[in-house]
Write a structure and sequence with these properties.
Elements (H helix, E strand, L loop, with lengths): L5 H13 L3 E2 H7 L7 H13 L3 E6 L2 E6 L3 H14 L4 H11 L2 H15 L17
Antiparallel strand pairs: 1-3, 2-3
Keywords: DNA-binding, Transcription, Transcription regulation
Family: Belongs to the BlaI transcriptional regulatory family.
Organism: Phytohabitans maris
């Protein structure tokens, strides 16, 4: 999975935060403090569609866009991609596990226990790492 640029991330944050399909105009309005041209937002959304980060469908004469996956799924994939950069995934995982807070460690323990039990649910209301919105 590709890392997002700063503007791509801002657009994705709007889509993730709103939770409903949005048109280019609606995304541009949400980003009005950046003073972006409509065509700039349209180009970013088109590129995100090409990267399969967003899905689009016709909404009258315009397109509406929604995230192809949840923010949590995207971040989890970034973490997995980072692990792939290591020559020792085990060592990287141990280092990561030792760096998280006590609360985060509890979340990880609960998720691992659930996975070991064959559960398909999610922990603490979070979405599954490979799930879609």
């Amino acid at each position: 999975m590709m890392r997002l640029g700063e503007l791509e991330r801002a657009v994705m944050d709007v889509l993730w935060d709103r939770g409903t399909p949005l048109t280019v105009r609606e995304v541009a309005e949400a980003l009005r403090n950046r003073e972006l041209a409509y065509t700039t937002v349209m180009t970013v959304l088109d590129r995100l569609a090409g990267k399969e980060m967003v899905e689009r469908e016709r909404a009258g004469r315009a397109w509406s866009y929604r995230p192809a996956a949840s923010r949590e799924a995207y971040i989890a994939q970034l973490m997995l991609d980072a692990l792939d950069l290591s020559s020792s995934r085990d060592a990287a995982l141990v280092r990561f596990a030792r760096s998280v807070s006590g609360t985060e460690a509890e979340v990880l323990r609960a998720a691992l226990a659930e996975e070991a039990a064959g559960g398909k649910g999610t922990t603490s209301g979070e979405e599954a790492a490979d799930g879609k919105d």
